[in-house]
Amino acid sequence: MITAVLLFAVGLMLIMLGGDRLVDAAVAIAKKLGIPQIVVGATIVSLGTTLPEVLVSTTAAFDGSAAIAAGNAFGSIICNTALIAGLTQTIRPSKKVEFASIAWRSAFFFITLIIMNMIGYMTGSFGQPVGICLLLAFCLYAFLSIKLSAGEADEEEEKEDVSSISIPKQLLMLVVCAALLYVGANLLVDNGILIAQALGVPERVIAVTFIALGTSLPELVTSIMSLVKGYGNVGLGNVIGANLLNLLLVIGIPSAVAGIPLENGTVTVDMPLACGVMLVLLAPIMIRKKSSRVQGVLLLGIYAVYCVASFIG
Hints:
A middle domain of Talin 1, single chain, mainly alpha
């Protein structure tokens, strides 16, 4: 038990260090290339912070436990949106959000999720054809992110001297930070489960809460660090991008490998709730081009009810 607690603490420190430096490197790249912060948050940063979910789900698929992937993915989307975005929007609501960057990514997310929900209801699983389509959709998302970034501008950013910024150095920093996030998340998840088991927490609740929360901690730390450093749009873009990658990669890869059987609760509760919390986060931003603390408080309340219901259920 003591060893598990110590390793849990080490994992937390690695994630905090990796998240801190990941934000700095990503923002430096954004400034050097003239790319809006929210675009970098939704692409480079979100890909790095989603690595734990991708690796956990892919490993589970190869180990014959593909069903874990769906719970991990949708649980992470709910956690990213209701807890992480809820917390950051409560602390410091996003202002002057660039509409185009949010609009097409939001549409991409909701269209993908609605189609997946329909398939889940009709078939009770995500087979290999679905996985292949999701991976192709990821390729389309990556292409659009690069193609459209040239026309997207962030109203919060100011021109700065970027002559001293080295792209290769910052890219290397991103890789190192992503590795720290992965190792840290693994230590948190593995030892968090051991601690929970020692405290007598049911296995189903461990899967719904500890795994989803543990693999989402990179997004949490990165978003908080973005707020501390004054790059709020990086955190918002990170959450939106990470949620898209949870659909396209965290489910896409194990589905393409072995197919994913879906539990009834995933189809009837987790998937609709993932859609609902994203609507709460994005709808006011799409209309007003800024968020409010009311959204943040509402999202945190939804997450609290979800966790309590999971424990009671």
